[in-house]
Amino acid sequence: MAITDWPEGDRPREKLLARGPQALSDAELLAIFLRVGVRGKSAVDLARDLVSHFGGLTRLFFASRQECVAMPGLGDAKYAQLQAVLEMARRALGETLQQGDVLGSPQAVRDYLRLRMAGLGHEVFMAVFVDSQNRVLEAEELFRGTLTQTSVYPREVVKRALAHNAAGIILAHNHPSGVAEPSQADRWLTDQLKQALALVDVRVLDHFIIAGSGSLSFAERGLL
Question: Can you give the pTM of this predicted structure?
Answer without folding.
Answer: 0.70
